[in-house]
Amino acid sequence: MLPVVRERPRLAHRAVGAARSARPVQSGQSGQSVGRPGVPQLPCRGVTDERRGTIDFVTYINDGQGFAVRDDSTLKKITDFAQLCGLNVATGAGTTFEVTLEDNKHVCADPGKKPYSVKTYTEPGAIWPSLQQGRSDVVMSTINGLRYAVQQQEA
């Protein structure tokens, strides 16, 4: 288990207990795409009919959708959006994750529960401090991206 560092909290890959750490907790399926030459790449933005009109997409990696939480979170495995009710969920701005989260808020509101709040960040580097500092309870991203980010915190 990693020690708790108060000045710069660290994320742990899987151990539970450190006050400022995180772990990936779920995976699914999605893809990342690249654009044609001269067109900016749109990683994690997903393929849509509108984007197909201006960009030639090539799926080059299958990656899962997942969540990461601080190690002191009570969430062990996220299998339903209803588990996120009342929490702050961080994700990249303009991503398919943002759309998915917004589209599923009703799973909390319909039964009268407090919906989760979607916190979007244009800079991926801002997502992790929001989790470390407690401004976000959960991060939704690609499972490979989550694993990489957690490993960088452990280094």
Helix content: 10-25%
Count up the domains.
Answer: 2
How many angstroms does the end-to-end distance come to? 13 Å
Q: Supply Rg.
A: 16 Å
* CATH H-level superfamily of the largest domain: Periplasmic binding protein-like II
Strand content: 15-25%
Name given to the CATH architecture of the largest domain: 3-Layer(aba) Sandwich
Number of E-type strands: 7
Average pLDDT: 75
Secondary-structure element order, as H and E? EEHEEEHHEHEH
Question: How many individual helices?
Answer: 5
Which structural class is indicated by helix and strand composition? alpha/beta
Class of the largest domain, according to the CATH hierarchy?
Alpha Beta
Chart the SSEs and their pairings:
Elements: E1 22-24, E2 30-34, H1 49-52, E3 58-63, E4 65-70, E5 88-92, H2 96-103, H3 106-109, E6 117-121, H4 124-132, E7 138-142, H5 143-154
Can you offer a commentary on this structure?
This protein has 155 residues and is of the alpha/beta class. It folds into two domains: 1-26 and 65-155, Periplasmic binding protein-like II (D-Maltodextrin-Binding Protein, domain 2), CATH 3.40.190.10; 30-63, no CATH class. It contains five helices and seven strands; from the N terminus they run ββαβββααβαβα. It has a five-stranded mixed sheet with strand order 1-4-7-5-6, sandwiched between helices. It has a two-stranded antiparallel sheet with strand order 2-3. The longest helix is centred in the C-terminal third of the chain and has 12 residues, at 143-154. The protein is globular and about 40 Å long.
